[in-house]
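Everyone, describe these structure tokens:
***
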Amino acid sequence: MNFDDVVDRYNTNCLKFDFKKERNKPEDIFPMWVADMDFRCPPEVINDLKARVEHGIFGYSDVDITYFRALYSWYLTHFNVKLQRDWLFNTPGVVFALATAVKVFTKENDYVLINNPVYNPFSEVIEDNKRKIMSSDLINNNGHYKIDFVDLENKIKEYNIKLYLLCSPHNPVGRVWSKEELDKIVEICKRYNVFIVSDEIHSDFVYEGKHICMLNYQDYLDNIIVCTSPSKTFNLAGLQTSNIFIPNQNVRNKFMKEVWATGYSNINALGLVACKSAYEHGDKWLKELIEYLKGNVKLVEEYFRENLPNIKVTHPEGTYLLWIDFSGTNLIDEEVTNKLTYEAKLWLNSGIKYGKSGKGFQRLNIALPRSELQHALEKIKEVFG
């Protein structure tokens, strides 16, 4: 694959490129914020979508056994998980599923546990549904983030936590949780009967270690939901297809009723085609992509180390999002963001979006051609060097 190819995304209703003015950004800013990639999806997916479009009818659609088999094969091969057909429920997105889980497992004013700094919709689906955020903040140990298990357990006890939204791999700090860490999470949650909803949307992007799907915890499956989607892996977010695995039948029924109450029912017809095709044919493409992204990670780390040593890159074990510490510039968050926006003309995500522990950080999307990434780094050097 030619991941160096620069694809013009303007005038495609692209959130990333076409809505700068609506989001109060300069028209000449280069976007590196939202987590989609500037790469075309696998050619097999494009071909299968073309064939489906040629059919010309896009009526109500649903998954069949061939769709499930594609998921089954992928998860068995990549994560050693034997999915069961009745576990699967489809939603238009993982965030939609997180919001649904909040409504199913908690009541208004209940606390929901998260690990800040974490993907900001975690907090939004809690607060928007009139629940309260309780964060057991990750510990930043010289650029390596860890879970504070003592704090985690204390928060669960003190605030009567019923639901834990886990981000695995973690966005934005790039951790791929080890088996020992996940074992400890399950041990604590089992002790207090806490339900775990695991967002594993970045599970295919692992550079170090191994992603462990929470569905491997057979003795706690009744208290686990795993939220997945091909949207990050194969750049299919606009087709709104997510696969939610809910092993417990009673929980699944409650979840389905909550979804149906929103008026949502049938899966996106083209999303169905794209997801099935990606899981059937996308493995080689993904392996090449991972190697390319590793090269982008190396470029960013070496560039900052050699040219801007006061700005620290958190070494990622997974995801294509880099968590960068600008606190060494001695500038406050607003100043850093303004310099990036109006001087470097780069659109990143300020770390404070991810909770107070994100102070001093910026999130950078590196899933783009290397020439454009190199240019962005040079612009940062011009402003902060």
User: Anything to note?
Assistant: Residues 283-307 form the longest helix (25 residues). The CA atoms of residues 63 and 77 lie 21 Å apart. Residues 15-42+283-384 form a domain with the Aspartate Aminotransferase, domain 1 fold (CATH 3.90.1150.10).
